[in-house]
Amino acid sequence: MVRVVVIGGGAAGASAAARARRLDPNAEVILIERGSMITHAPCGMPYAIGGIVKSHEELQTYTPEEFEKERNIKVLIRTEVVDIDTDKKTVTVRRGGAQETIIWDKLVIATGAKPLVPRIAGVELKGILTMRHPDDVPTIKGHLEKAKTVAVVGGGYIGVEMAEVLLELGKKVLLFEQFDQVLLGALDADVAALVAEEMRAKGVELHLGEKVVEFRGAEHVNKVVTEKGEYQVDEVVLAVGVRPDVDLAVRAGAKLGETGAVYVNEYMETTVPDVYAAGDVAEKVHRVTGRRVWIPLAPTANKEGQVAGGNAVRGRVLKFPGVVGTAVTKFYNLYIARTGLSEKEANALGLKAQSALIKARTKAHYMPGAETVHVKLIAEESTGRLLGGQIVGKSPVVAAYADILAVAVQSGYAVSDLFFSDIGYMPDTAPVWHPLIVAARVLSRGKL
């Protein structure tokens, strides 16, 4: 009987444990989580902080007790792994003030990512908040409760989402981003400008191209200092990004890849025999470029967990083919999606991209409730191969458009393939000329 130990109870870890159990009913599966909950969703934290989700405890699919009973998986919560011995095949854990040693045959490391804390003077002051685990929600809510002015440092996904949440809580919101656009890693500047316009319209005081250099205060932060000025604040939300939590993997002797995340092959195997890594801790392969990337997203983590858990008990029965980096977020009712490469990324890789940005409607012109949507497509100039796209609009259909485009990009479609795609139509769901089809026609430069 094989014993599989999984470290980390989030998306990748829980999926790995569940798949190992499904493929080998006789295996002994142990899931170790240092927090109080498993199958948790950190991406829902802003909405729990804002009260849209009533309790942070709702950010879990299964309670530890349910998972243990229904899946026949031993779950150890509030348990920290302090050491890994790959020669003896043991992990040492600290639980309830005591240490114990657990033997394993196969080990899956799914420790996820942790907030990036920049080296800024005063960053250790009270009132400077980071978000990692749903367990942090009550503490963060407590800090924000009496605050009137809150600074958000970072204009990525979490920064944009938290800006909305804080506005809805009645706070004055200042968002600082050292680069000259929001969502730098996700969107090109022309599309990001549409998002920034909406954020300003809703009341966010955007400070783009303004780097934070210091936090000031006695014990609690009360001032943000940038290269351009000083600003009084009551609390600060740090949202400058995350990095892979590789400490345990390094301790196990696993090689790190060029991105700083754990190097894995298509079977989610690390360079250490019988040790797997999955989720935000691990590198991925980009399906457009073939290059190694680190794109931490929950859907990917779930799939990688399935691969790692299945292979841990059955031996190379599943492969993970890679990612195209599809992601969706929103600011109020402005939905923002992207997939594949941005134009900037493509050109930096020497792919010589061409693009088209079009404005269309989400329904036929005579139907009520239509919204404007902006679609940007990026293709390789020499071949017409689709490289990526970005979509922004005040309708949830933005996510569906991105999903269609993601399949097209990962399948190697050319612009003409997208144009001739048999996308469904009826007046209340799309114009007869679907926005993606229109964008493909414009991008073809008169060839279609």
Tell me what you see in this structure.
There is one protein chain. With 448 residues, the protein is of the alpha/beta class. It has 12 helices and 25 strands. The protein has helices spanning 11-23, 45-49, 64-71, 137-144, 157-168, 189-202, 247-251, 298-314, 343-348, 397-410, 415-419, 435-443; strands at residues 3-7, 28-32, 74-76, 79-85, 90-95, 98-103, 106-109, 113-115, 128-129, 149-153, 172-177, 205-208, 212-216, 223-226, 230-232, 235-238, 242-244, 275-277, 284-285, 292-293, 327-331, 334-340, 353-361, 372-380, 386-393. It has a 5-stranded parallel beta sheet. Strands 9-16-10-11-12 form a 5-stranded parallel beta sheet, covered by helices on one side. α1 (11-23) packs parallel to α8 (298-314).
The total strand number stands at 25
Helix content: 25-40%
Instruction: List segments where confidence is low: pLDDT < 50 over at least 5 consecutive residues.
Output: none
Strand arrangement in the largest pleated sheet: 3-2-1-7-18
Estimated structural class = alpha/beta
State the separation between the terminal residues, measured CA to CA: 60 Å
The total of helices stands at 12
Strand content: 25-35%
Largest sheet: 5 strands, parallel
Shape: globular
Cα radius of gyration in angstroms: 23 Å
Mean pLDDT: 96
